Amino acid sequence: MLTLDKVYHAAFVLKNVIRSTDLIYAPKINRDAEVYLKTENLQNTGSFKLRGAYYKISQLSEEEKQKGVIACSAGNHAQGVALAAQRSGIPAIICIPDGAPISKVENTKSYGARVELVKGVYDDAYRRACELQQETGCTFIHPFDDPDVIAGQGTIGLELLDQLPDVDAVIVPVGGGGLIAGVAFAIKSLNPKCKVYGVQAAGAPGMVHALEAGKPDALERVSTFADGIAVKCPGALTYDLTSKYVDGVVTVTDDEIATAVLTLIEEQKLIAEGAGAVSVAAAMFNKIDIKGKKVICLISGGNIDVTILSRVITRGLVKAGRVADMIIELADKPGQLREIAAIIAEHGGNVIHVRHDHGGLDTDIVGCYLSIQMETRNHQHVEEIYNAISSAGYKIISSGKVM
To answer: What distance in Å separates the CA atoms of residue 65 and residue 208, rounded to the nearest whole number?
Structure first.
């Protein structure tokens, strides 16, 4: 059973293992609210997962420790279990979906764990881990549906109330539900007036689906770059705790998540993975009513693959109107590229890519296409440039506006 005493005991056990991560004021996330960021992306192993994994392993018997542990994870729980097992001097086997970021896989190996890559998503890795557990007799360290794991994650709730006692609302990323279950339980037990909200990727709304259905029920598929929360089905225990202690769960799109990742880099100098940034996305895009309130967005992790980060930054720039594309239909004659470039420059845009193609079967024989990508300030600026080009008599047949 999960109790407040267990959460406090977890905090005691973890005090020399984890960092009490900083709470940072972030005035530009949502100017209508007083927003703070709980920086678990700066936690040891790069995410909150070390808390629950270490506490769970600390509670095993000596006999259980001798046999070792096994876990499944999209990457962050894997690293938490691997480091906890290494510090406890016990062997660990970790099953990881084959689509997990390479950095997470390599970091897990660096802590001494044996890694098995499993084709599919988290739920496929979970099934394989259960098979190996039966074969080996190792103790299975569940990533979220375990009272000791949840108690470890709940220590974040204790820290939040110590760091900002008069907080009005806490926004928490949700995958399987272990983090929000622990945080909500701790906060509501000590300050029932504080609201706790969950956020999921729109392509992986497992907890939202469960709350609507009245029970945990697996999705057919999940699709999001926020791999840390790409879970088809929440746990039975996490569902019960969420339905009892959480005030609501919302979703954000991948484009909104990408914008949040970019904003954290530019405005706060923080690197967050997609799963870690969903709470910030919810605050930025007003998915929750936080106007006039003191709000904490929990950044749950920062383990994002560099190649994915590059794509995310590009997507975030497009979503924010900082990069825009357009295709213009022209007559193939000299001087038009110069004139269009001049219009863009006069309005403060910066051309970063140009491609000139002769027209196809559906255009005039002397026609051509001009594809332009440019740097801009925002969507209003993009609209201003499009209108200027159209007013000059050019036909824009395709644009990269994000509305």
So the answer is: 36
Question: What is residue 403's predicted lDDT score, i.e. its pLDDT?
Answer: 31
Q: What is the DSSP letter of 58?
A: H
- What percentage of the chain has pLDDT greater than the value 70? 97
The answer to whether residue 401 scores a pLDDT higher than 60 is: no
**170 Cβ contact partners less than 8 Å away, ≥ 6 residues apart:** 157, 160, 183, 187, 194, 195, 196, 197, 295, 296, 298
| β-strand pairing of 23-25 with 34-39 | antiparallel
- Distance CA(181)–CA(384), nearest Å, equals 47
Q: How far apart are CA 78 and CA 115, in angstroms?
A: 9
Q: Where are the beta strands (DSSP E) in 89-229?
A: 92-97, 114-118, 139-140, 169-173, 195-201
Instruction: Please tell me the distance from the alpha carbon of residue 238 to that of residue 244, in angstroms, as a whole number.
Output: 10
What are 287-333's pLDDT values in tens digits? 999 999 999 999 999 999 888 898 888 888 988 899 999 999 887 77
Please state, in angstroms and rounded to a whole number, the distance separating the CA atoms of residues 248 and 199. 9
Lowest mean pLDDT among 29-43, 203-217, 301-315: 301-315
Sign of torsion over alpha carbons 70, 72, 74, 80? negative
CB 48 within 8 A of CB 301: yes
Type and span of the H or E element at 229: none
Higher pLDDT, 394 or 366: 394
Q: What is the pTM of this model?
A: 0.87
From 56, 232, 300, 319, active-site residue: 300
pLDDT band with cut points at 50, 70 and 90 for residue 362:
low
- Asked if residue 315 lies in contact with residue 322, where contact means CB atoms within 8 angstroms, the answer is no
Name the strand (E) or helix (H) holding 352: strand 350-358
Q: Indicate if 49 belongs to the active site.
A: yes
Let me know how long the chain is.
Answer: 403
**What distance in Å separates the CA atoms of residue 52 and residue 147, rounded to the nearest whole number?**
9
Q: Which residue has the tokens 């909150």?
A: 48
pLDDT score for 295:
98
For the record, the structure tokens of 270 come out as 């923080």
Catalytic residue, from 6, 38, 47, 49: name it.
49
3-class secondary-structure state, position 199: strand
DSSP summary character for residue 25:
E
How far is it, in rounded angstroms, from Cα 101 to Cα 377?
31
